[in-house]
Every structure is written in structure tokens, then in C-alpha cells.
UniProtKB/TrEMBL annotation:
<dbReference type="GO" id="GO:0006113">
    <property type="term" value="P:fermentation"/>
</dbReference>
<dbReference type="GO" id="GO:0004022">
    <property type="term" value="F:alcohol dehydrogenase (NAD+) activity"/>
</dbReference>
<dbReference type="InterPro" id="IPR001670">
    <property type="entry name" value="ADH_Fe/GldA"/>
</dbReference>
<dbReference type="Pfam" id="PF25137">
    <property type="entry name" value="ADH_Fe_C"/>
</dbReference>
<feature type="domain" description="Fe-containing alcohol dehydrogenase-like C-terminal">
    <location>
        <begin position="234"/>
        <end position="425"/>
    </location>
</feature>
<feature type="domain" description="Alcohol dehydrogenase iron-type/glycerol dehydrogenase GldA">
    <location>
        <begin position="55"/>
        <end position="223"/>
    </location>
</feature>
<dbReference type="Pfam" id="PF00465">
    <property type="entry name" value="Fe-ADH"/>
</dbReference>
<comment type="similarity">
    <text>Belongs to the iron-containing alcohol dehydrogenase family.</text>
</comment>
<keyword id="KW-0560">Oxidoreductase</keyword>
<protein>
    <recommendedName>
        <fullName>Alcohol dehydrogenase 4</fullName>
        <ecNumber>1.1.1.1</ecNumber>
    </recommendedName>
</protein>
<dbReference type="InterPro" id="IPR018211">
    <property type="entry name" value="ADH_Fe_CS"/>
</dbReference>
<dbReference type="InterPro" id="IPR039697">
    <property type="entry name" value="Alcohol_dehydrogenase_Fe"/>
</dbReference>
<dbReference type="InterPro" id="IPR056798">
    <property type="entry name" value="ADH_Fe_C"/>
</dbReference>
<keyword id="KW-0520">NAD</keyword>
<dbReference type="GO" id="GO:0046872">
    <property type="term" value="F:metal ion binding"/>
</dbReference>
Length: 427
């Protein structure tokens, strides 16, 4: 358990701030217009017309890093800013990318002080380095935090003002500087989304910026950048991706495209995650997990999530627990409760076939999720994670105010959420 408690930097900041955004604005985009919904019913009954958002170019596989550098070189850029975090700098990856870019003729500056949950200060400090060099492009290296910070920096570089000016949906007028997002974990998918979450520490909130203009120009998933990922982090981020797939597949906002992404993502995770966990240098497993987390990102970025994430957000906020681990513990229990919805029950049965079962049986899906957790030494229950029963009431209240629950197939009462917490605690 201690090893998982130390995995604190894995959460995509998007998830932590999305509740604040929707509880404040209660908005959804339809053809890039803002629609206000006063009830869950209205949200579900709004126009089904929606966008499908991914980067225009993505590179996958060993050698994708070099391919990206060649792509940048051929664009004839002269000055680049690398945005990363102290951990990536310490292992030398940002230095490696800097050298590759410089050998291609670029002048490179680095901002490597991004925090796990990037704040306004991080954005301003990075922007200062960018302006000093007059950078033409931004290269982010890391997980969700580095990419979010880079997106905010690139947006302010062209639009000006303060990052809080762009809180909401498509508030910017100009395209951000081109962003090349080099991913180092197979879980969050933040290298391919149009979301960026920035903390306002003065107001003690997280600002959600959902803007087409912050979608990276190129998303990079090179397994060679992940070979050194520790087993605990491999498990937590991989199970985060599995949660994205399953919640998107049973989501009330799913569609045939997100369904295809979710199911193929589950296939790859079933085939590769435990192998990557056991042998971090397994080239095929790491490569397949790159594809899996990206597919999961396409699914949830367009179909949203559910009560696993709604509850996990509260656990992370209360106890500073790793997001992927919370998802893994909660996932089978929430899906078991979702079976009271006939459509969700049928879909959970379909998932079973993608997790090795021989028949469509939702109970087999639940069993398979527990097997995944045991195989990678995920703590058995919330009790083992240090969650306190006396907090169940406020955790349930907050989960019901989290936007992710809006597309859950069952809209639980507070008592039902507490029951899920209790089941997850005592299992």
C-alpha cells in the first residue's frame, strides 16, 4: 500500500478541476455554442450534435520522439520552449530532447519547475521564459501537469491577458503557439485533449479551460520514454485508462465512435497492462499501452465519464490519494451498482468478452476488474487507503456535485453513493 500512496503525481489535472467548472457554469458545447442546462434531464435531452476532438497529428511507437524532432525541423522553426517538471529533468529526458532539438538547429529554452497541479505562478514563470527567448513553439514533456502548464503558456503567448480570462469554453480568439506534447505515462491522455486545468491558489479553485485552441498540434507516445516507469505508476496510470474506457462505454453520452475507441482500448489493456507492470522494458506491452491510453482519451474526451471519477476526485481532494489507485478500487463497485440500468448491464456484459470471458456476463466483468487489481497489488479497499467512514457523508455530497456523474448510467441518491463507499471500504 505504501508504494501506491507515494504515487501522487499521476492524476490528470483536468479531472480535479472539471467539477469546479461545471458546478459554476453548468454548460455544454453544441457546435461551439454555450448551452445552459438547469437539470440533468435537460443536459441529456440537448442536441446530440457534438464535436470530436483530437490533435491533427499523433506519433506512436519507438522512434516517435525522433520523428517528432524531424517534423519540427522540417517546419523550419528556430526557437522552442520546453515545459516539463523537476522529475523529468532529473532523469535527463528533457536534456535529451533539448540536445536533439539543438542538433536540428533550434535554439532551446527550458522551464522545468511545473508542479503536480500547475498553478498560475507556474504559467507566468514559464511565459516569462518564453517571452525572453521569443519562442515560436512549445514542447511539453511529462504527464498531465506538464501538458496543462504548456497549454496555458502557449495560449497566453498569443492571446495575452491572464489565464483566468479563458476559463470556460472556447474563450480565446487566437490559436495558441504550436504545442508538441511528449507523453511519459500511459494513462491520463492529456497529451491529446483540448482541456487544461490551472490552479488559482489565491481563490483555492482549479480553473477549467476547455478550448479548441489548446489542443496540441502533435501528440507523441514513444514507449522508450516509459521504460523506466515504476510498476506502481504503471499500474495506477494503466487502470486509470481502463476506467476511462469502461466509464465512456457505459456513459449516456457514448456514441459509435467512442464505443469503438473504448472497446479497443480495453482489448489492448487486457493484453498488455500486466506485462508492462511485470516488465517495464517490454517494448510491445509499452507500445500497446500507448495506443490504449490514447484510445481511452478519445473515448472519455468525447463521451465523458461517470461516478467512479466523481467519487475518486473527492478521495483525492480529501486524502491526497493517487487518482488511478482510487479509480481501480472504486471501479468494480460502481459498475456493480450500475447494473440496475438495463442498458449499462448489457454493455458491462459486452465488456466481459473483451476481458477474457467466454460469454456476455456483467458479473464476469466485475470479477475481471478485481483480478486486475490483485495482479498489480492495488490496495484491496478504501480502508487500506486510509479513508475514514465519518467522511462518507461529505464525500457523497461532493461526488453528487461533480460533473462526471451527469453521464453515469444511473443517477444515484446520496444514500446509494454512501453504500458504494461502504462497499468499497469493507470489501
Amino acid at each position: 500500500m505504501n508504494m501506491y500512496k507515494k504515487v501522487t503525481g499521476i492524476s490528470n489535472p483536468l479531472k480535479a478541476g472539471i467539477s469546479h467548472f461545471f458546478s459554476t457554469f453548468s454548460k455544454r458545447t453544441v457546435n461551439n455554442k454555450l448551452i445552459f442546462a438547469t437539470t440533468n434531464y435537460q443536459l441529456r435531452k440537448m442536441s446530440s450534435v457534438t464535436g470530436f476532438y483530437i490533435p491533427p497529428i499523433s506519433f506512436f511507437g519507438e522512434g516517435a520522439l525522433e520523428e517528432t524532432v524531424d517534423y519540427i525541423k522540417n517546419k523550419d522553426y528556430k526557437k522552442a520552449l520546453i515545459v516539463t517538471d523537476p522529475g523529468i529533468a532529473a532523469i535527463g529526458l528533457s536534456g535529451r530532447v533539448q540536445k536533439m532539438l539543438e542538433e536540428s538547429g533550434l535554439n532551446v529554452a527550458i522551464y522545468d519547475q511545473t508542479q503536480p497541479n500547475p498553478n498560475v505562478g507556474n504559467v507566468l514563470a514559464g511565459l516569462k521564459v518564453l517571452k525572453q527567448q521569443n519562442s515560436e513553439i512549445v514542447v511539453s514533456i511529462g504527464g498531465g501537469s506538464a501538458h496543462d502548464n504548456a497549454k496555458a503558456i502557449a495560449l497566453l503567448a498569443t492571446n495575452g491577458g491572464e489565464i483566468g480570462d479563458y476559463e470556460g469554453v472556447n474563450q480565446s480568439k487566437k490559436a495558441a503557439l504550436p504545442l508538441f506534447a511528449i507523453n511519459t505515462t500511459a494513462g491520463t491522455a492529456s497529451e491529446m485533449t483540448r482541456f487544461t486545468i490551472i490552479s488559482n491558489e489565491e481563490k483555492k479553485i482549479k480553473m477549467a479551460i476547455i478550448d479548441n485552441n489548446v489542443t496540441p498540434a502533435v501528440a507523441v507516445n514513444d514507449p522508450s520514454t516509459m521504460y523506466g516507469l515504476p510498476p506502481a505508476l504503471t499500474a495506477a496510470t494503466g487502470l486509470d485508462a481502463l476506467t476511462h474506457c469502461i466509464e465512456a462505454f457505459v456513459s449516456t453520452a457514448s456514441n459509435p465512435i467512442t464505443d469503438a475507441c473504448a472497446l479497443k482500448g480495453i482489448d489492448l489493456i487486457d493484453e498488455s497492462l500486466i506485462s508492462a507492470y511485470k516488465n517495464g522494458k517490454d517494448k510491445k506491452a509499452r507500445t500497446d499501452m500507448c495506443y490504449a491510453e490514447y484510445l481511452a482519451g478519445m473515448a472519455f474526451n468525447n463521451a465523458s465519464l461517470g461516478y467512479v471519477h466523481a467519487i475518486a476526485h473527492q478521495l483525492g481532494g480529501f486524502y491526497h490519494l493517487p487518482h488511478g489507485v482510487c479509480n481501480a478500487v472504486l471501479l468494480p463497485h460502481v459498475q456493480e451498482s450500475n447494473m440496475q440500468c438495463p442498458k449499462a448491464k448489457k454493455r458491462l456484459g459486452e465488456i466481459a468478452l473483451h476481458l477474457g470471458a467466454t460469454k456476455e456476463d456483467p458479473e464476469e466483468t466485475i470479477k475481471a476488474l478485481h483480478v486486475f487489481n490483485r495482479a498489480m497489488n492495488i490496495p484491496r479497499n478504501l480502508k487500506d487507503l486510509g479513508v475514514k467512514t465519518e467522511d462518507f457523508g461529505i464525500l457523497a455530497d461532493n461526488a453528487m456535485n461533480d460533473a462526471c456523474h451527469l453521464t453515469n448510467p444511473v443517477q444515484f441518491t446520496k444514500e446509494q453513493v454512501i453504500a458504494i463507499l461502504r462497499q468499497s471500504y469493507e470489501y
